[in-house]
Design brief:
The chain is α/β, with parallel strands linked by helices. Helix content is 41%, strand content 13%. It is globular, with a radius of gyration of 28 Å. Pfam families: TylF.
Length: 273
Amino acid sequence: MLLAYLPKFLRNVLQADRAPTIAEPAVNLPAVEEPALEAPTAESAEETVMQTVLQKVRPYSMVPDSGIEFLIRSVQSLFDQQIEGDFVECGVWKGGCAAAIKLAELALQPDSQRLLHLFDSYEGLPPVQPIDGPMAAGWQQAVDSPWYFDNCAASLEVVQQNFAQLGLLDARVQFYKGWFETTVPEFVKRYPETKIAILRLDGDWYESTKVCLENLYPLVSEKGIIIIDDYYAWDGCAVAVHEYLGKHGLNHRIRSIPDFSSAYIIKQAHREA
């Protein structure tokens, strides 16, 4: 009788070695329902991507987690809305934010063929001008401060090495070394048909922000995202943004990324209900 309770493969083994006996009555055991496995939700999948990317890029970025999380969600939003364009960052430092964009792209849409364009002097920031404000001048003079970060200098070789360690260094990542006033207009002249989905500006000062907006904003796709990292940090950056929007009569709202770490604009011709 107990034989009926054994797994089938054990019953077969035991029955092979025993002599024929009177057939045992069948025993109808109650079915045992196994707990159903919950399918992963979109929210849990997104959180997994978020935490994986954050862990990988933290060593290479000064941006708080909220800013990097916003980048990841921006990439997801662009895919969801099918907004065309490449990714552009002006002001790269060690490549953390750029790597976050690339990692998010690979996780969310592995077959994506968008380019990532990275502009930087790879030598640090240019000198502060009066329009950038006294706080900016004080920061650049405080060379012994733990927040100086060697004037935000990181060589091209260091950035490329970081990308290689993350498995991100390929032909779709393009580097442009030099001051924005030279490299950015040259890029637009050479690739005037480029479309930009995310434009991330992290050049700190007035002139850097101004030249990037003047040359790259026209290439941003409708409903593309412009992130201004230093909008709340430095006076000159905010002035450059206000001047550009006013000069061109743009009605865009300047919005805050959580924790006021930076600001962003959605390029949209008109407000939608």
